[in-house]
Write a structure and sequence with these properties.
Elements (H helix, E strand, L loop, with lengths): L23 E6 L5 E6 L3 E6 L11 H4 L7 E7 L6 E8 L5 E7 L5 E6 L4 E7 L3 E7 L3 E6 L3 E4 L8 E2 L4 E6 L5 E6 L4 E5 L7 E4 L2 E6 L3 E6 L3 E6 H8 L13 E4 L5 E6 L4 E5 L5 E4 L2 H13 L1
Antiparallel strand pairs: 1-2, 2-3, 3-4, 5-6, 6-7, 7-8, 9-10, 10-11, 11-12, 13-14, 14-15, 15-16, 17-18, 18-19, 19-20, 21-22, 22-23
Amino acid sequence: MTPFRTQNVPPPMSSYKLSFPEQVVHVNMSPSEDALAAIFRSGLVQVWDLGTRLPEAGKSRLRAGGKPAEPKLRWEQRMAPEGEFIAKQVCLAGNGEVAALFWGNGVDGEVIRIANANEVWHEESLLACSQHVLWEKEAGWLIAERGGNIRAVDESKPGMVSICPRPQSVAISAESRIVFALSDTGRLVAASLIAGSDSCTLATGVTSFTITPDFLIYTTSSQSSHYAPLSSVQRVLDGEDVALIPDEDWEQRRVERGAVAVVACPSSMSLVLQMPRGNLETVYPRALVLSVVRRLVLA
């Protein structure tokens, strides 16, 4: 049998590439600007201005020509703590600061270090149960623990909310200040940072989720995608529509088995899905289209 060869396989298609100096552990996008942070195995952290080219008003992006983006390195520095460590996660805040989470070899187990372009200005030892580092405009830096609690790094910040144990992914809606988390058993939960209450289960059998300023979008193992308005989720958290979960008025759309949500683009009314084969597909769900149409009609 002739051995399989990969020398002549063409490289994967992409709009542009970032040249990293070593193996990447984790990357994170800024919630308020066109920037990205990356952390590497050595503890090096880089912050990039992506320079994504947006179409000018009244002009076609195809006719304009040029590169789709011109990424430039903003700053870099080593944020690793003393002693042995394993780089775990990085988070880029809306104010340009970066928080890096490390597994350490000390008594406390983990270390979070916060830095700006000039220096590492904060370091704190954490319990070994710390799972994710997040940033929210009002609460500042947050830590999501494996047991299901989310607390502020700054102890002067009020409140703590509970989500699901062992969260695999966590996201915060900047507009409504609702925390969404997906457990390792496929349970999707939500909690309000304003009320500081316990979480409410929105769906089970969930495989992925993403959020927009208006919608919570999630896929399930039953080959469907769901589009829940955040205003409806807020009513559920307030105890008004608990009996309606899952709400039949939430839009649904069939997807291919194994497809997961990557990102939603409200301005273009599109949702990017990753198929089981690895390729990306863009769909235009009715819920996102009608939301834009409604806004234009009201304007």
